[in-house]
Amino acid sequence: MRKLLVVLTLAIGFSVSNLNAFNEIKPLDKNEVIDKKGDIAALCKAVAKGNLEEVNKLIKAGVDVNEKSNGLMPIHYAAKYNRVEIIKALITAGSEIHKSCDMGYTALSYAKKSKAKEAELFLMRFKNKNV
Question: Could you tell me which residue, 123 or 24, shows the higher pLDDT?
Answer without folding.
Answer: 123
